[in-house]
């Protein structure tokens, strides 16, 4: 890792620590209000381990509050293709963004694959509503034999799907391992499209 990468990693970890501390403070206030105690919701060690991308939660994938269609309830109110930047997170050093937990999981998947000599590239991720309109115009609607979802319905519009650039080896690797990271191949004719399907609480 070069010094720039290390610095950027440190900055990333610091920003996540701040986010965790904010969350923790909120959770603590909520817990205090509910029970009169002030037990913290998490620990520094847990937060640090999370930020480092290690298997802090005993290797178990985190669970999220999802609606009946599997969309995180924290995103539903924004609307498909209208997710604000602060609910999205960059994938690695790319300009691609996903719902933050999906981005973190994809980052782990890409780095674990890399450690095994498998290269996973990324060609697409979050798509705003306008971008979905553009893709539908260029690639045609899936329902009509094309490759685009009806604008406003794409999994990409929730930041919950990514299109990966996979050679044969990488395709096989993601098919064998993707589910461990929450990514499933759910669209016939689109072996590059991987949807993030976290566990529901
Ligand atoms: Zn896709």
Features of the shown structure:
201 residues; four-stranded antiparallel beta sheet; two-stranded parallel sheet; binds zinc ion
Summarize the structure.
By secondary structure, the chain is α+β, with helices and mostly antiparallel strands. The protein has helices spanning 3-35, 44-51, 73-76, 100-115, 129-139, 168-177, and strands at residues 63-64, 88-90, 97-99, 121-124, 161-165, 183-185, 193-196, 199-200. The chain starts with a helix and ends with a strand.
Overall radius of gyration = 18 Å
User: Biggest sheet, in brief?
Assistant: 4 strands, antiparallel
Structural class: alpha+beta
What general outline do the C-alpha atoms trace?
globular
- Give the averaged pLDDT, no decimals: 83
Task: Give me the strand/helix succession.
Answer: HHEHEEHEHEHEEE
Share in helix: 40-55%
Distance between the termini: 36 Å
- Could you tell me which ligands this complex binds, including any ions or cofactors? zinc ion
Which strand order do you get reading across the main beta sheet?
4-5-7-6
Q: Give the amount of beta strand, in percent.
A: 5-15%
Low-pLDDT residue spans:
25-40, 53-59
**Tally of extended strands?**
8
Structural description of this entry:
The chain is an alpha+beta fold and 201 residues long. 41% of the residues lie in helices and 13% in strands. The protein has six helices and eight strands; from the N terminus they run ααβαββαβαβαβββ. It has helices at residues 3-35, 44-51, 73-76, 100-115, 129-139, 168-177; strands at residues 63-64, 88-90, 97-99, 121-124, 161-165, 183-185, 193-196, 199-200. It has a four-stranded antiparallel sheet with strand order 4-5-7-6. A two-stranded parallel ribbon has the order 1-8. A two-stranded antiparallel sheet has the order 2-3. Helix 1 (3-35) packs antiparallel against helix 2 (44-51).
